[in-house]
Design brief:
Elements lengths: L6 H5 L5 E2 L1 E5 L5 E5 L2 E5 L4 E6 L4 H8 L2 E6 L5 H9 L7 H5 L3 E2 L8 E2 L4 E13 L2 E13 L9 E3 L3 E3 L6
Antiparallel strand pairs: 1-11, 2-3, 2-6, 4-5, 5-10, 6-9, 7-8, 9-10, 11-12
Length: about 170
Amino acid sequence: MKKSISADEAEDCFSGFPVVLGTVGGEKDNIITLAMCHVFSFRPPYIGVGIGPKRFSHRLFKESKDFAINVPDRRLLRETEVCGSKSGRRVDKFEASGLTREKASKISAPLIAECPVNIECVKVKEVEAGDHTWFIGEIVAARQDPHYDKADMMLYWGEYRVIGELLK
């Protein structure tokens, strides 16, 4: 028989969330490490990121008409940690992490050259959901390194992980 668990314990039942580096332009280009990223629709292609209002990037995402989702792989662990541990209020995260700013094809937000996947989004909706705002964008362009291996994609749940085993 299953036992009752708390809401916090229910959250612990997930093995992890995909780690992405969100980028936004505007008054200042910024990178934010995020573990709240999800596909919201296939037709039209919507993807979103959840950001807490206390984060510097929250205001930047709110004011911007577009953003990018850059998918790092295990080789970018150090850079991902730098972008997740420093505030864009005080630091240029491109400089601090050593990541390369790259011009996007259809949006004003920069892309990250070293990330094997870059997804350009035009913001279509903001949803207040408890302690986070979900910024949902329509995918208007995307690109992928031909050598990208999803097995190297990082997940986060208290620590960084990669996918370990194919079940089927």
